[in-house]
Amino acid sequence: MTHEYQITGMTCGSCVARVKNELLKLGDVTGAEVQLGSPQAVISMSGHIGTPVLQEAVSKAGNYKITEAGDHATHSMIEAATGTGKPSYLPIFLIFGYIAGISILVQVVKGPFNWMQWMSHFMAGFFFVFSFFKLMNLKGFAEGYQSYDVVAKQFPAWGYIYAFIELGLGIAFLTGFEPMMVNAITLVVMAVSTVGVVQSLLRRTSFQCACLGTVIKLPLSKVTLFEDLLMVVMSAVMLITML
């Protein structure tokens, strides 16, 4: 018998390999195909294995959760936005829309419109929201980020540090703390992050984007590149304006 399952928490090839290895250790599992796309696990069994037993196995591989494909509500809800079986970019577009809209509204209410202040508020919102999703599963984010970021590949702890750097940048942009220094740090950090994204896109390597942690699954794509470049351009513009 063969069953399909969804597994949350997997972000890269090493996650897939660890999960598959643990599943194949179960006596009644005769085959296991595991991938980042949906369905994430197709398991062949000689006898029925309950989900709790499978969960115990994947937990040995890391902070992962396995559910039968039909019960994975979060995954289905996100995919339903486009009416397809593919991941939807709608969540990230909504996030950008909300951040842009709120920061514009602040300027409209305060008046007159100040572009520099708007960019600071937009960047604050960006870093607050994106760090929030990363911190919901910091280990999962760090493992996923390590799969394509040039710094995290050499220094795995960078994935853990990066989420807190984003949070710190969000606070700094919102409070106006040392704008010259904060924009310079943002420019360097986001430029380095862009390098890893560009390299992966040029190699056409299939990775899950870690920008929203493991909560919302998105493939690494030009959307990821746009996010990073937007922060690079905004910080560069603000630095030039302050010179």
Main sheet makeup: 4 strands, antiparallel
Q: How much of the residues is beta strand, in percent?
A: 5-15%
Domains, number: 2
Question: In whole angstroms, how far apart are the ends?
Answer: 68 Å
Shape: elongated
- Main-sheet strand order equals 2-3-1-4
**Class computed from helices, strands and strand pairing:** alpha+beta
Features:
two-stranded antiparallel ribbon; four-stranded antiparallel beta sheet; Alpha-Beta Plaits
Would you write up a description of this structure?
- The protein has ten helices and six strands; from the N terminus they run E-H-E-E-H-E-H-H-H-H-H-H-H-E-E-H.
- The radius of gyration is 20 Å and the shape is elongated.
- About 6% of the residues have low confidence.
- Helix content is 63%, strand content 11%.
- The longest helix is centred in the last third of the chain and has 25 residues.
- It has two domains: 78 residues, Alpha-Beta Plaits; 154 residues.
- The strands form two sheets. It has a four-stranded antiparallel sheet with strand order 2-3-1-4. Strands 5-6 form a two-stranded antiparallel ribbon.
- With 243 residues, the protein is an alpha+beta fold.
- Helix 9 runs antiparallel to helix 10.
